[in-house]
Amino acid sequence: MGESECGNSVRSGRSGRSGRSFDDRTIVTQSEAVVAAGQFGDKTIGMISGFMLLVNNVTGPGLVQMPQVFTKSGWLLTILSLLICWLSASFACTMMLEAMKRIPGNSKFEQRIEFTTLAKYHFVGKLKFMYYATLICFLLSFLTTLVTSVIESAQTMDEALIELFGKSCAVQIYNNETASIGGKFGLDCISEASEGSGESPFGPKAYVVSIGYAVVLVVALPLGYWNLDDNIWVQNFAFCGLCFIVCEWCIQALVHGIDFDKNDVPVAGSDQSQIGTVLFNYAFVTTVPSWVNEKKVGVPINKSIWGSSFLGTMMFLFTGLLCAGAWDSSSGNLLSLLTKSSTPGVGT
Fold this sequence. Notes:
This protein is mainly alpha-helical and 348 residues long. 53% of the residues lie in helices and 6% in strands. The protein contains twelve helices and three strands; from the N terminus they run αααααααβββααααα. It has helices at residues 3-11, 28-36, 47-58, 66-73, 75-101, 115-122, 128-165, 211-220, 232-256, 288-294, 301-326, 334-339; strands at 167-175, 186-191, 206-210. The longest helix has 38 residues, at 128-165. It is globular and about 60 Å long. The termini are far apart.
């Protein structure tokens, strides 16, 4: 069914679960037709599960980079940046929800409104260019976050395979150090003894498709076909794992000993460009509309948003500051540092 046909069919009587109709200005009629077809989840996400979901999205791939940010940019500017991002992201979420409530028939979030449909509803006429700008920024934000998350997950999986089975293999596409102009293609296996330096076990200048990447792909791909309420148990499990790992990191840092002078954690650092890493976190703004659409009636919105963003900020603060004070974090992210650390009990 085409876009115009879908909109016309809904306006002529197929108004979906809510039984409400919309004026011609809104694109919401199209998503409402999809809801009527049963292709979206129901309002079954409770307060605790929703809180876990939001925390998982607040703590993005920049979490493992926080010790390096504290080391290179200094603790004062890093803490100020975290506070600014926490406040601005949380306010952005609450203001976005107010914009969602202003759509006719959605004062209590009865309809199915997503991030892009919200922008298309409000940015009309002379403001149409704002919709396209929002769409482009939305896609770029998702791409940068997803690419970073996939790379970190694949590298960590390869490190785990090396620890568990003694090696991990990959199809090497190109290696800057050994390849000819035409590139070098072939199978390359890495053991713990031959593990490369840097964040990737295959070395910093190798381009590979590894077994770790394949495992991450197999695990993550099916989740993309499920509705949010169907895979909320995955979010619950991920939240418990996140809390355990962050607590382990902080405890190991305290056991190892905190020395800001020895590990060079200044008040103001010399490389302020590292502050941009903070922006890899707080990407939960785009998740909020989907969460609101599938949360149970009565779940407090503001408490969930502000509470989850505050907990995520505390995770950034304690993980970054304590781990930067315990180990020299200037050369790589926390996963790479702890994997190669000789400190007993330290691990990822």
